[in-house]
C-alpha cells in the first residue's frame, strides 16, 4: 500500500474551503507528490458543511479511502461529519479562540492554533485558512516554502503585498505549531520528489480535450456539475477562434450546438440531471439529420432535482435509450480523468466520421476530483483529427444527382453519406427531423423509409467493425473472480485490488469505457466463476445490459448514497459479495 | 456571390402542399426575392424552419436548410450564424412555433441581436393540426379546443420584441407582395436581429383574420403615417396601439451592434487544423 496521507479542510460554504484545499493540493503536486482530491459540498452558497479532501502519496493515488489523518476543522460539524474516518494518530487543527467549544475526539490530537489572530498579525483575518495550511505543513513535515508557488498562482493577480501577506500567514501557522506542540510522535513526514505533475479534474480534461479536438462552438446552460466544462472553455476557446454561448435553457443549448455543427463547426454541449431530459427532445433530430454532435452528460444524483451535488451513475439507460423512436447513437463513458480528455477527442472523431450524436457520459465524481498526472498523459501530438466524409468543393460534384442536387443522405454501403457545409458551391441541401429521401426531402414512401432507417443504423454497424471498442483491464487476468465497472469507479477498484491481494483474494477488473457499442464480454464472464458488476446506482443498469448480452446472471454492487466508492470500502464489499450465493440463472 | 442570382434559384422542385390561397405562398416568395435582391445565393444561405404549415418552407426553398424541432428554429439559426458569420441566416416559422412553444427562445434571440432574419408567418391559428387556438388568436376566437374562445388576450409579438430589446421590428402582409419583400429586405440588411411578423392568412381555418380583414384594416406606416422607424417613442406608440394594426418597419435601432461584433466572433469555425492546435501543450502546462 502506498504511504499515503489523507488531509482535509472543512467548514461552511463561503469559508474559502475549496480554494484553500486547492492551494495545498497544488503545493503537494509541485513538490512532486501525487494528489487525489475530493469534495463534500452542498447546493448552497453559504452555510452548511463543505469539505475538500486530499489524498497524497509519492505513488499514484486514484481513490479516496475511509481514513483521515489531518483535519483542519473550521466548525464542529466538520469534526462530527468525519468521526468515522478519524483514528488514533489523527491531528485536528482548530482555532480555540473562536466561539465554539471544540469537541476533539479523545484518541485524536487536537492542535489548537489561533488561526484568526495569527492571520490578523499577517495582515488580515481572511488569511486564517492559510495559517492553518502552515500549521498542516509543520505537522506533516512538509516544507512551508512549497506553499509559496501556489500562493503566488492564487493571489498573484491581487498584487505582491497580498502574496507576501499570505506567505507570512503560512509561516506564522507553521512556527506556532513548531513552538507549541510536539508533533513528531504523529510520525508524518512527507517525502518530496523531482517529478513534474499537472493537477486537474475531469471537467477540465473534457474542456481541454474539446479544444485539442478542434471544438469551436459550445452552447450550454449552467447546471451542477457540468458548468465547469463551460467555465473552462470560456476565456480559452476564443484563443483558437471558438466561442462559448450561455443559452436560455438546455433546449436552446443543444439546438444552438446542432446549428453550429450543421454549419461545419466541431460543436458540443454539456449538461446534467434535468438538463439532459430537456435535451432529449433533440436527440432524434441530431440522429435523423445526421449531424455530428457531442453531448456530454456529467451525471449527478437523480431523479428530478435529486441530490444535485452528489455522485450517481443513474443515466446509463437514458443515454442508451433516451428519445422517442429508435435513435442511433454512440455512448462513451470515460473511466478516469485522463480518459475524460482522450474520450472527448475520440467523441469528436466518432461524431464526424459517422455523423451521429455521441454521448459522452461522465459523472460528478470525475468532474470535481482533481488528480495529478505527468503532463505527457495529455500528449497533444498524439491527438488525431478525422473529419470523416466532409467533402471539399471538388468532391461535391461527385455526389450530385442527375439534376445537380446534393445527396446529403445518400444511402451508401457503409451508411455514411457525404457531408457538405454551407458555403460549398452546389452543396445546398435541406436536412430534417422528418423522414426524408437522399436529398433530405420529406417522404413517407415505405421503401425510402426503410432505406434511410437502415442506412442510419448501418453507420453503427460500420463503426462496430471499424473502431476499437475495447476495455481496460487490471488485476489478475486469470483470476476466477471478475469485477466489471463503468465510469469513475475504476480508480477505487484498482486500489481495492491491493487490499484484496492482502487478503488473498484474486480479482480481474474490467473497466468499460464504451457503453454503446460496447465490447462483447461473453468469454470473459463465462471464463469467470463469479462476476460482480459495480456501479453507482440502485438498480444496476449496466449489470442489466451485460446480463442481456451474455444471457447469464451477475452479482451486483450498487451504491446510491450520493458518495463515490472508496477503495477500502469496495474491497470489503467485493469480499462479502463473493461469499454470497450465485444468483439463480 | 454571383450577381445573376434569380429568386427562382431559391425555389426547390418540391411543389408546396399548402392550401390554395394560403398566405405562406406570398410570404415565401417575398423571402426568396429579398434574399436574391440582397445578393445572396442558395450556397451561402441557411434557412431554418420551424414546425407547422410554415415549417414546410425549408422543403420548398432551395438553400442549406434545417427543419428541426418544434419551437427551436431560432436556437439552430443562432448556432449557424455564430459559428459562420459568413453565411446568411434566415429563420422562418409560425406563430405557434415562435410565440408559444418557442416564446422563450424568441425573447433571448431578440436580446442577443445575432445578425440574422426571423420571419414569422402569423395566421393566428394552428393550421396543420386542423384549427386550434394559437397564441395570437383573438380572445373570442372559437376553435375546436376553445369552443368559447381562448378567453385570454393574444400575445403582441411586436411588443414582446420591443420589451426584449429588439433592434429591428417590422410587420408585413403576405398579400402586399412588394411591401412585404421590401420589409424583409430591410430586415436582411439590418445589422442585427431583423424580426418581421407577417400576416399570412389561413384560408381554411381562420375566418376572422382573413385577407379581406387585413386589406381593409391594415395601416401602412410609411405610406399613410410618415412613421420614423428610428424614433423609439413613435415605435412604442404604434406597437402598443390597441386599435389599429400596421405594416411597415416599426422600429430600427440605428446604433445596433450585432452579436458577432459585441463578442468578437468573426471566424469561420468550420476550419480547424489536422491535429491539436500548435500551442496546445500550453493548456496542459496551465495545470502545473
From TrEMBL, chain A:
Quaternary structure annotation from Swiss-Prot or TrEMBL: Heterotetramer of the KorA, KorB, KorC and KorD subunits.
InterPro entries with a match to the protein in the record: 2-oxoacid/accept_OxRdtase_asu (IPR022367), Pyruvate:ferred/Flavod_OxRd (IPR050722), Pyrv/ketoisovalerate_OxRed_cat (IPR019752), Pyrv_Fd/Flavodoxin_OxRdtase_N (IPR002880), Pyrv_flavodox_OxRed_cen (IPR002869), THDP-binding (IPR029061), Transketo_C/PFOR_II (IPR009014)
One Pfam family matching this protein: POR_N
Pyruvate flavodoxin/ferredoxin oxidoreductase pyrimidine binding domain residues: 209-454
Highest taxon listed in the record's lineage: Archaea
NCBIfam families found in the cross-reference section: OAFO_sf
GO terms under biological process: organic acid metabolic process; response to oxidative stress; sulfur compound biosynthetic process
Name this polypeptide is given: 2-oxoglutarate synthase subunit KorA
EC number(s) reported in the record: 1.2.7.3
From TrEMBL, chain B:
Region annotation Disordered: where it falls in the sequence: 130-153
Membrane-spanning residues: none
Keywords, sorted A to Z: Iron, Iron-sulfur, Magnesium, Metal-binding, Oxidoreductase, Thiamine pyrophosphate
Pfam families according to UniProt: PFO_beta_C, TPP_enzyme_C
The Thiamine pyrophosphate enzyme TPP-binding domain, residue ranges: 51-198
GO terms for MF: iron-sulfur cluster binding; metal ion binding; oxidoreductase activity, acting on the aldehyde or oxo group of donors, iron-sulfur protein as acceptor; thiamine pyrophosphate binding
Superkingdom classification of source: Archaea
GO biological process: cellular respiration; organic acid metabolic process; sulfur compound biosynthetic process
Compositional bias ranges of the Polar residues kind: 131-147
Magnesium listed as a keyword: yes
Co-factor(s): thiamine diphosphate; [4Fe-4S] cluster; Mg(2+)
Domain Pyruvate ferredoxin oxidoreductase beta subunit C-terminal: 202-266
Gene3D superfamilies xref list: 3.40.50.970
Stored SUPFAM superfamilies: Thiamin diphosphate-binding fold (THDP-binding)
Protein name: 2-oxoglutarate ferredoxin oxidoreductase subunit beta
Amino acid at each position: 500500500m502506498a504511504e499515503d496521507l489523507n488531509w482535509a479542510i472543512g467548514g461552511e460554504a463561503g469559508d474559502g474551503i475549496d480554494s484553500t484545499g486547492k492551494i495545498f493540493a497544488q503545493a503537494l503536486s509541485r513538490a512532486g507528490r501525487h494528489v487525489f482530491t475530493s469534495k463534500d459540498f452542498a447546493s448552497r452558497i453559504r452555510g452548511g458543511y463543505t469539505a475538500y479532501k486530499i489524498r497524497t502519496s509519492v505513488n499514484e493515488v486514484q481513490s479516496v479511502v475511509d481514513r483521515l489523518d489531518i483535519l483542519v476543522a473550521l466548525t464542529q460539524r466538520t469534526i462530527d461529519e468525519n468521526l468515522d474516518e478519524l483514528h488514533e494518530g489523527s491531528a485536528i487543527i482548530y482555532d480555540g479562540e473562536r466561539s465554539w467549544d471544540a469537541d476533539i475526539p479523545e484518541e485524536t490530537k487536537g492542535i489548537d492554533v489561533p488561526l484568526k489572530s495569527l492571520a490578523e498579525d499577517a495582515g488580515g483575518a481572511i488569511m486564517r485558512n492559510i495559517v492553518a495550511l502552515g500549521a498542516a505543513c509543520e505537522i506533516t513535515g512538509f516544507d512551508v516554502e512549497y506553499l509559496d508557488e501556489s500562493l503566488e498562482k492564487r493571489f498573484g493577480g491581487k498584487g505582491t503585498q497580498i502574496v507576501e501577506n499570505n506567505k507570512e500567514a503560512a509561516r506564522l501557522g507553521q512556527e506556532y505549531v513548531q513552538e507549541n506542540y510536539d508533533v513528531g510522535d504523529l510520525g508524518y513526514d512527507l517525502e518530496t520528489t523531482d517529478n513534474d505533475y499537472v493537477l486537474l479534474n475531469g471537467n477540465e480534461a473534457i474542456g481541454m480535450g474539446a479544444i485539442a479536438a478542434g471544438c469551436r462552438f459550445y452552447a450550454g446552460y449552467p447546471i451542477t456539475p457540468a458548468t465547469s466544462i463551460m467555465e473552462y472553455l470560456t476565456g480559452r476557446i476564443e484563443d483558437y477562434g471558438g466561442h462559448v454561448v450561455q443559452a436560455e435553457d438546455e433546449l436552446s443549448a443543444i439546438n444552438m450546438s446542432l446549428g453550429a455543427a450543421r454549419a461545419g463547426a466541431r460543436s458540443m454541449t454539456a449538461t446534467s440531471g434535468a438538463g439532459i431530459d430537456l435535451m432529449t427532445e433533440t436527440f432524434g433530430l441530431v440522429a435523423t439529420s445526421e449531424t455530428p454532435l457531442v453531448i456530454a452528460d456529467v451525471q449527478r444524483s437523480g431523479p428530478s432535482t435529486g441530490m444535485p451535488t452528489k455522485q450517481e451513475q443513474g443515466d446509463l439507460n437514458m443515454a442508451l435509450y433516451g428519445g422517442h423512436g429508435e435513435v442511433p447513437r454512440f455512448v462513451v463513458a470515460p473511466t478516469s480523468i485522463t480518459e475524460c480528455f482522450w474520450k472527448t477527442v475520440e467523441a469528436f472523431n466518432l461524431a464526424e466520421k459517422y455523423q451521429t450524436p455521441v454521448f459522452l457520459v461522465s459523472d460528478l465524481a470525475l468532474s470535481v476530483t482533481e488528480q495529478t498526472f505527468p503532463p505527457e498523459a495529455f500528449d497533444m501530438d498524439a491527438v488525431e483529427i478525422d473529419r470523416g466524409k466532409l467533402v471539399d468543393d471538388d468532391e461535391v460534384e461527385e455526389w450530385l444527382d442527375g439534376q445537380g442536387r446534393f445527396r446529403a443522405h445518400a444511402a451508401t454501403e457503409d451508411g455514411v453519406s457525404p457531408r457538405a457545409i454551407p458555403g460549398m458551391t452546389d452543396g445546398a441541401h435541406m436536412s430534417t427531423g422528418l423522414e426524408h429521401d437522399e436529398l433530405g426531402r420529406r417522404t413517407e414512401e415505405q421503401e425510402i423509409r426503410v432505406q434511410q432507417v437502415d442506412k442510419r443504423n448501418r453507420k453503427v454497424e460500420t463503426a462496430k467493425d471499424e473502431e476499437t471498442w475495447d476495455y481496460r483491464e487490471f488485476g489478475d487476468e486469470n483470476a476466477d473472480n471478475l469485477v466489471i465497472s463503468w465510469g469513475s469507479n475504476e480508480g477505487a477498484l484498482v486500489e481495492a485490488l491491493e487490499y484484496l491481494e492482502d487478503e488473498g483474494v484474486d480479482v480481474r477488473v474490467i473497466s468499460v469505457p464504451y457503453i454503446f457499442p460496447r465490447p462483447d464480454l461473453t468469454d470473459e464472464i463465462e471464463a469467470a466463476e463469479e462476476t460482480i458488476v459495480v456501479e453507482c446506482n440502485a438498480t444496476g443498469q449496466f449489470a442489466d445490459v451485460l446480463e442481456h448480452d451474455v444471457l447469464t446472471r451477475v452479482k451486483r454492487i450498487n451504491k446510491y448514497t450520493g458518495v463515490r466508492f472508496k477503495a477500502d470500502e469496495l474491497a470489503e464489499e467485493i469480499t462479502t459479495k463473493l461469499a454470497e450465493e450465485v444468483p439463480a440463472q | 456571390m454571383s450577381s445573376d442570382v434569380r429568386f427562382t434559384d431559391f425555389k426547390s422542385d418540391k411543389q408546396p402542399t399548402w392550401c390554395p390561397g394560403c398566405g405562406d405562398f406570398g410570404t415565401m416568395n417575398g423571402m426568396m426575392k429579398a434574399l436574391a435582391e440582397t445578393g445572396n445565393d442558395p450556397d451561402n444561405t441557411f434557412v431554418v424552419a420551424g414546425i407547422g404549415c410554415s415549417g414546410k418552407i425549408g422543403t420548398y426553398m432551395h438553400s442549406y436548410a434545417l427543419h428541426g424541432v418544434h419551437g427551436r428554429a431560432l436556437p439552430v439559426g443562432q448556432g449557424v450564424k455564430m459559428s459562420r458569420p459568413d453565411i446568411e441566416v434566415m429563420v422562418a416559422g409560425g406563430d405557434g412555433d415562435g410565440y408559444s412553444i418557442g416564446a422563450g427562445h424568441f425573447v433571448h434571440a431578440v436580446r442577443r441581436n445575432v445578425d440574422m432574419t426571423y420571419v414569422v408567418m402569423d395566421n393566428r391559428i394552428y393550421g396543420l393540426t386542423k384549427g386550434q387556438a394559437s397564441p395570437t388568436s383573438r380572445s373570442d376566437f372559437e376553435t375546436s379546443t376553445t369552443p368559447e374562445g381562448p378567453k385570454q388576450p393574444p400575445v403582441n409579438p411586436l411588443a414582446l420584441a420591443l420589451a426584449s430589446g429588439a433592434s429591428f421590428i417590422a410587420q408585413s402582409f403576405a398579400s402586399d407582395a412588394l411591401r412585404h419583400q421590401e420589409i424583409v429586405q430591410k430586415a436582411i440588411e439590418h445589422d442585427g436581429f431583423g424580426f418581421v411578423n407577417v400576416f399570412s392568412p389561413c384560408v381554411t381555418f381562420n375566418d376572422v383574420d382573413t385577407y379581406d380583414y387585413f386589406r381593409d384594416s391594415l395601416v401602412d406606416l410609411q405610406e399613410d403615417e410618415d412613421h420614423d422607424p428610428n424614433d423609439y417613442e413613435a415605435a412604442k406608440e404604434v406597437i402598443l396601439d390597441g386599435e389599429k394594426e400596421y405594416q411597415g418597419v416599426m422600429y430600427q435601432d440605428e446604433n445596433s451592434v450585432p452579436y458577432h461584433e459585441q463578442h468578437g466572433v468573426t471566424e469561420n469555425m468550420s476550419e480547424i487544423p489536422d491535429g491539436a492546435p500548435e500551442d496546445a501543450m500550453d493548456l496542459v502546462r496551465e495545470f502545473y
